[in-house]
């Protein structure tokens, strides 16, 4: 077992939620043999800037998994980290090539992203047939998990606003870098201990200049913009649509289209222009913003820069008037977004 020293369980002075089960340990060791280093950094061609020193990596318990990946909590150079191991199927060359391309794209994007509301990249290892991506570990888990622990419609509006602003700030930065996330949903939004939201999982993200059509795209139907479902050309506005769905989740703490299968939801969105029902208690301010974000016409959806401005204006108004959300009404003949600056000025 000497060659698996890097894989040892984290020392007793670092408390994890639980130890690996025997089955998990055996499966993890079977993956780890592809990553084992004699102590030197593992570097491949063109990877010098982000390659991990595997001798400094210690893996703890698994806390998430996908069809081709496992995510573990661990320690890397005395830092709490999340470790995603991606397994390339040796029997399916096309899928392996796709997963390798996805890995390379995700690492390339993450390496250059630095923002308080974007998950922090730490290092990576590319050694087929198992790849490894190391990011900061966020103890709060996913926003989706948090919401499902709450009673429906129970989140205070000031918390909804705070979480929405975190997400919008992260997405504004991402778009300023010319990047589309393309899979924005509550499951891919992570919470820190201070309830700070960070955008995560860039496996199917792309540069806007390189996205092309959505043919063969594998996103998540319940959050997916209609033009993506139809496999048409898409822009940054697909993320704005998804943000509208996430904002609905914050207000309801429910799963969108939970009475439908994902395929039924996709059909309803495209063919019937269906959207998740807004609760009758939804403030007009949020209702107007959501309706614009998930408009079927991408050109009518606001950019994240505008969304941030709107939400920040809400925050200022709420601080000045605790009853802002219940008392606010847009001016006649104007949309909420168009009249907002004047309305805010009138209140100050």
Automatic annotation (TrEMBL):
Keywords: ATP-binding, Kinase, Nucleotide-binding, Serine/threonine-protein kinase, Transferase
EC number from the UniProt entry: 2.7.11.1
Cross-referenced SUPFAM superfamilies: Protein kinase-like (PK-like)
Record domain Protein kinase: where: 57-315
Catalyzed chemical reaction(s): L-threonyl-[protein] + ATP = O-phospho-L-threonyl-[protein] + ADP + H(+); L-seryl-[protein] + ATP = O-phospho-L-seryl-[protein] + ADP + H(+)
Enzyme class, broadest EC rank: transferase
Similarity remark: Belongs to the protein kinase superfamily. TKL Ser/Thr protein kinase family. RAF subfamily.
Protein name as annotated: non-specific serine/threonine protein kinase
The species this protein was found in: Camellia sinensis
């Amino acid at each position: 077992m000497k060659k698996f020293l890097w894989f040892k369980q984290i020392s007793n002075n670092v408390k994890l939620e639980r130890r690996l089960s025997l089955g998990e340990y055996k499966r993890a060791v079977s993956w780890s043999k592809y990553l084992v280093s004699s102590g030197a950094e593992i570097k491949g061609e063109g990877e010098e800037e982000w390659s991990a020193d595997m001798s400094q990596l210690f893996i703890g318990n698994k806390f998430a998994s996908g069809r081709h990946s496992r995510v573990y909590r661990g320690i890397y150079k005395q830092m709490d980290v999340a470790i995603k191991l991606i397994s390339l199927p040796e029997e399916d060359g096309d899928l392996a090539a796709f997963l390798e391309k996805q890995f390379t794209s995700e690492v390339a994007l993450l390496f250059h992203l630095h923002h308080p509301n974007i998950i922090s990249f730490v290092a990576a290892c590319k050694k087929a047939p198992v790849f490894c991506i190391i990011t900061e570990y966020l103890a709060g888990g996913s926003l989706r998990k948090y919401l499902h622990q709450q009673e429906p419609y129970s989140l205070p509006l000031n918390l909804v606003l705070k979480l929405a602003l975190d997400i919008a700030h992260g997405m504004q930065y991402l778009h300023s870098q010319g990047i589309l996330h393309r899979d924005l949903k509550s499951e891919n939004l992570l919470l820190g201990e201070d309830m700070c939201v960070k955008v995560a999982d860039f496996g199917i993200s792309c540069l806007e200049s390189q996205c092309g059509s959505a043919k063969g795209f594998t996103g998540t139907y319940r959050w997916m913009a209609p033009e993506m479902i139809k496999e048409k050309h898409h822009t940054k506005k697909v993320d704005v649509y998804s943000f509208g769905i996430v904002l609905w989740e914050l207000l309801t703490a429910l799963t969108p289209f939970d009475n439908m299968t994902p395929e039924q939801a996709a059909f309803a969105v495209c063919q019937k222009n269906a959207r998740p029902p807004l609760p009758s208690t939804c403030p007009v301010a949020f209702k107007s913003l959501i309706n614009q974000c998930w408009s079927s016409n991408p050109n009518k959806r606001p950019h994240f820069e505008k969304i941030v401005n709107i939400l920040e204006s809400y925050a200022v108004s709420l601080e000045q008037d605790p009853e802002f959300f219940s008392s606010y009404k847009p001016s006649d003949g104007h949309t909420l977004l168009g009249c907002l600056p004047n309305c805010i000025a009138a209140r100050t």
